[in-house]
Amino acid sequence: MTAPRTPKIPYGGDYNPEQWTEEVWDEDHRLFTEAGIDTLTVGVFTWSLTQPGPDTYDFTVLDRILARAAAEGRRVCLATGTAAVPPWLAKRHPEVNRTDFEGRRHRYGQRHNFCPSSPAYREHATRLADRLAGRYARHPALLAWHINNEYGGACYCDLCAEAFRAWLRRRHGTLDALNDAWWTTFWSHRYTDWDQIEPPNALTEHWRGPDHTAFQGITLDYHRFTTDALLGCFRAEKDAIRRHDPATPVTTNLMGPYRPLDYHRWAPHLDFVSWDNYPPLDAPPTRAALGHDLMRGLKDGAPFWLMEQTPSTTACRDVNPLRRPGDLRLATFQAIAHGADATLYFQLRASRGACEKYHGAVIGHAGRADTRVFREVAALGEELGRLGATTLGARTPARTALVFDWDSWWALETSDGPSRLVRYLDVVHAYYRAAREAGADVDVVPHTADLGHYDVVMAPALYMVKGDLAHRLEAVAARGGTVLATFLSGRVDEHDRAFRTDVPGPLAPLMGVRVDEWDARPEEFTQSVPELETEARLVFEIVRLTGAEAVATYGADFYAGTPAVTRNRPGDGAGEAWYVATALDQRGVDRIVRRVLSRHGLLGPYADHRGVETATRIAADGTPLLFLLNHAPAPTSLPVAFTAADLLTGRRLERGEPLTLDPYGVAVLHAAQ
User: Fold this and answer.
1) Does residue 146 contact residue 3 with C-beta atoms inside 8 Å?
2) Is 150 assigned a catalytic role?
3) Average of pLDDT values for 630-634?
4) Which one of 85, 367, 622, 669 is at 20 to 30 Å from 58 when CA atoms are compared?
5) Secondary structure E strands in 66-174
6) ω into residue 460 within 30 of 0, thus cis?
7) Distance between CA atoms of residues 367 and 352, nearest Å
8) What one-character DSSP code corresponds to residue 497?
9) By three-state DSSP, how is residue 568 classified?
């Protein structure tokens, strides 16, 4: 099953009319029409309203909300409301409340506050989903089901301990296998009974927080268990919905590169991917782009929904900058350029009370239509209406892949060496950014992905190598492609045990290098890499060549002159394997990645136009759509790469003709006949 079929890009967002009288609803719908809003996400936090007691359900308000949406010609993404338990449930079943990392059982409060292993939570949440589906499965306003909301967080209670032990039995089979996987001969930890195993937290294996653990194996498995436990809750609600509604697509809103949950394990169970995009406004544009491409890669390149973004400001940080004029339009088209088939907001009307009353909203507290934010939202709604269905279902024709692996993320950042200053996402983003700014479309893929159609495969900080990935990377090079790996790759197996081979483990034959030692230094320490006119920091692996050639070397210390960057031509020399043995600064990463891309003709036509992002999608009729996005606060001019029509202006542009993009401007070029 795929995303809902719509005649245009769905436009709207989170709407909470239960907070308001129906007189306000009248004003809202008038303004929705003015802004071109056609899609509402409703019911996200309505559990205490729709089920005020254990055996009492009241759908009166939700009935009116959906009826009004249908009367206005709007569609609804209907949430099950199970992300925040009602007070009566927490009081009646205290075990529903989570136990935190320090071992404290929480009392009622906040949201995302449930234990995923609680039978009481599972029973009541599933029953509510069942009731909702039975009531609204054939409602004319229903467009999609939205289960729970932004799943996340871990619990360490006795129920989770029991569920963890059962999960471990299924994963490892025997205690002997588990003891071997966790290397429990270390520190007298060998388990002789499943009941001896405790969740890894501040009272057991951890010190100085969640990233400092005595046994990485158990902590890694608890991350995997938590992912599966929360996924189990999602699947239970989806099953309840499917008993009444076999056809309407089901999703939940993910959060991009979110460390606590491995979304690759979730992807098969989502009918379509949706996610919430809240990048820091001072982050480079490629941070949000990485999130979009990661979400698109969850289901083999299928388009996704942008379920939430702020129209103006957020309310969850110490300081919350405002989006500048034009930034909302640019961010929206960036999402569409990377595969979004819907663009929605949080929130449509600002709440009057509680912690999100200052979060950005399309409609503010005064309900005005003459604010800058509302005018920008309305103008964008009109533009998306003119765009129609042109981009819907379009795919990205990437020839470059980046392997993204949650297990490597978890294992690397809980390792006691070589450096705790290395952050997985920063390393990944540096290489992704280099490729995107060079004009390459990039698929962000799991380690299990089919790599057969990529010319370039980047695997930065692939700390853990699992399954047959090493052989599939070798196959990329064997057919003439290029593989790029970095420092701290190929260190451990799926259980976080060091390989009994030369570093980089299974990647060593492909890379043609051997690493015996590594130097780690404080963040302020840098070392030059003269051949690249750049600097390196954090980790300096000392490389011996076993077939590769040195491309660049370290400029100082006792290992001065030894390789910092290498290139190997394995086999008959058709392909290449690059190894970057240190954390180069962005300039150095850019130079390496551009050399790799240029070998395959993958540098984009605007690779030298700093601040201009390009992305390509192939429309359903096979026509390329080229998105040009100017992230600079000044206008820029560039020649048109092919004869095209700009879908946003209707203007025909001849090949080579200069095109001026306004500050934060956008063009969508459709190849002209």
Assistant:
1) no
2) yes
3) 96
4) 367
5) 75-79, 142-146
6) no
7) 12
8) P
9) strand
Query: In the annotation, is 308 catalytic?
Result: yes
Q: Which residues pair with 636 in a beta bridge?
A: 661
**Mean pLDDT in residue range 526-553:** 98
CATH topology for 612-671 is Immunoglobulin-like (2.60.40)
Q: Which CATH code, of 3.40.50.880, 3.40.50.1820, 3.50.30.10, 3.30.70.100, is assigned to 400-599?
A: 3.40.50.880
Residue with tokens 């989502």: 270
CA distances from 38 to 160, 292, 459 (A): 42, 23, 41
Q: Are 639 and 608 in contact (CB under 8 A)?
A: no
From the list 205, 237, 308, 541, the catalytic residue is: 308
379/36 Cα distance (integer angstroms): 9
How far apart are the two ends of the chain, measured CA to CA in Å?
A: 34
Indicate the pairing of strand 304-308 with strand 274-276.
parallel
Give me the catalytic one of 27, 95, 123, 150.
150
The residue ranges of DSSP E strands in 460-558, in sequence order, are: 482-486, 513-520, 526-529, 534-545, 549-553
Distance CA 43, CA 25 (A): 15
All CATH 3.40.50.880 domain ranges of the chain, comma separated, are 400-599
Tens digits of residue pLDDT in 128-165: 999 999 999 999 999 999 999 999 999 999 999 999 99
Give the list of residues 6+ apart from residue 346 with CB closer than 8 angstroms, or none: 13, 14, 276, 308, 309, 310, 359
Reported as half-sphere exposure (CB side, CA atoms, 13 A), residue 362 has a value of 32
What whole-number distance in Å separates Cα of residue 580 and Cα of residue 537?
Answer: 12
Q: Would you tell me how many other CB atoms lie within 10 Å of the CB of residue 298? A: 23
pLDDT of amino acid 280: 87
Report the alpha-carbon distance of residue 597 to residue 438 in Å, rounded. Answer: 8
Helix residue ranges per DSSP H, 260-309: 263-266, 285-297
3-state secondary structure of 60: helix
- Residue 621: partners with Cβ closer than 8 Å, 6 or more residues away: none
Helix, strand, coil percentages in the chain from 3-state DSSP, rounded to 5:
35, 20, 45
Tokens for 378, please give them: 């309305």
Question: In whole angstroms, what is the distance from residue 470 CA to residue 507 CA?
Answer: 6
Q: Where in the chain is CATH 2.60.40.1180? A: 612-671
Beta strands in 153-296 (DSSP E): 250-251, 253-254, 274-276
**Residue 672 banded pLDDT, cuts 50, 70, 90:** confident
Tell me: cis bond preceding 347? Omega within 30 of 0 counts.
yes
DSSP 12-67: EEE--GGGS-HHHHHHHHHHHHHHT--EEEE-TT-HHHH-SBTTB---HHHHHHHH
Round to whole Å and give the CA distance between 184 and 217: 9
